[in-house]
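Narrative progress, year one. The postdoctoral researcher (J.K.) led the effort to move from monomer predictions toward full complexes, under supervision of the PI. The following entry was the first complex the group processed end to end, covering 158 residues in total.
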Amino acid sequence: MRVEIYHASKYGNGAEVAGEIGRLLEMRGHEVDVKHIKDVSPRALPQADLYIFGSPGRIGKPIGGMRRFLKNVSPPSGTRYAIFSTEGTPRPDRKGRMPTEEEIARWQRIQPMMDDALQAKGLEKVAAMKFHVTDLKGPLEADWQKKAEEFVGALVNW
Ligand SMILES: Cc1cc2nc3c(=O)[nH]c(=O)nc-3n(C[C@H](O)[C@H](O)[C@H](O)COP(=O)(O)O)c2cc1C
C-alpha cells in the first residue's frame, strides 16, 4: 500500500519516530513518504491508502501547526488514517503519587483532538500510539522502537 506520513516535530523526536515507522513499513514492502507538515500543502495531499499523522503535545493539545493542518486536509471520506503523538512521560506529584490514566486523559487531549478533526471528515481510524519523551525536548523513552514496531504491526494487520 501507499502510505503518507506527516509529522509536526519541533525538537526532532517525532521526526525520528516518523522515520522509523516509515523504515519499518518499507521493510514490509510498502511505498512510504515521510514529511514534515511545513513541507506539505494540506489541501493537495497525494493519494494514499493510509495517512499517518504525528504531533507533539502543547498544553494538552496537538501543536498549533498540526491543528491547522488537520483542519485543512480533505482526503476522500472513508480513507484510513492512524495517529501518533509524542508526549511528556507522566510524572509523580509532590507526594510521589502517579496520575491515573483517567487523570492524564483529562488534560492530555492531543490524540482525541486529532481524532475529532479527522473523523469529522469521515476518515477511518486504524491505530494510534503514544511515544513518551523524558524531558520537554526529549529524548524519547527507551521503549520507543518497540512501540514503533507494535504500531506498524497494528497498521498492516487491520
Ligand atoms: C511550550 C511547551 C508545552 C508543552 N506541553 C506539553 C503538554 O501539554 N503535554 C505533553 O505531553 N507534552 C508537552 N510538551 C512536551 C512535548 O511533548 C515535547 O516537546 C515533544 O513531544 C517533543 O517532540 P518533538 O521533538 O517531535 O518536537 C510541551 C513542550 C513545550 C515546549
